[in-house]
Amino acid sequence: MALPRIDHIQLAAPPGCEDEARAFYGGLLGLAEVPKPPTLAARGGAWFMVGAQALHIGVEKDFRPARKAHPALACSAIDELAARLEGAGAPVRWDEELPGVRRFYTADPFGNRIEIIASPEETA
User: Fold this and answer.
1) What is the pLDDT of residues 108-121, one digit of tens each?
2) Cα 34–6–96 angle (5° rounding)?
3) 3 state SS for the chain
4) With contact defined as beta carbons under 8 Å apart, do 30 and 73 qualify?
5) What phi-psi label fits residue 111: left (phi over 0), alpha (psi between -120 and 50 degrees) or beta?
C-alpha cells in the first residue's frame, strides 16, 4: 500500500458561502474553480484546484472555523499576494518561527486559518 499524494483538502464554511468562497479562493488567491459532480452540487460549497490537488469548501450546518488546523499553500509571489489580501481587508500575520522560511497566516471570509508559504526559489 502507498499513499503517494494528497488528493484534496476540505475546509468547512457556513450555508450560503459560495459567493464569498469564490471571491476569496478564486478571486484573491487565484485558484481555478472546478465543477462539483452533479450528485454533490446540491450540497453547496465549491471546489478549487491548487496545482494537481483540490481544495474543497464544504457546507457545514453548525459551522465553526478551523483556527488552528489549516492548509499551507506555496506561493511564488508572496509579497504580492500579501498586499492583495491586505488591500481586500483580509488579515496578514507574518511569522518568522521557521528559520529560513518566509510565510504568513491569513483567514478566509469564514475565519478558517490559511498559511501562505514562499516557494523555495523565493527563500533562497
Assistant:
1) 999 999 999 998 77
2) 100
3) CCCCCCCEEEEEECCCCHHHHHHHHHHHCCCEEECCCHHHHCCCCEEEEECCEEEEEEECCCCCCCCCCCCEEEECCHHHHHHHHHHCCCCCEEECCCCCCCEEEEECCCCCEEEEEECHHHHC
4) no
5) left
Do 14 and 59 meet the contact criterion of CB atoms below 8 Å apart? yes
Residues 6+ positions from 48 with CB-CB distance below 8 Å: 25, 26, 29, 31, 32, 33, 34, 54, 55, 56, 57
- Asked whether the CA dihedral 21, 25, 30, 36 is positive or negative, the reply is negative
Q: What nine digits make up the cell of 20?
A: 464569498
Give residue-wise pLDDT tens across range 12-37. 999 999 999 999 999 999 999 999 99
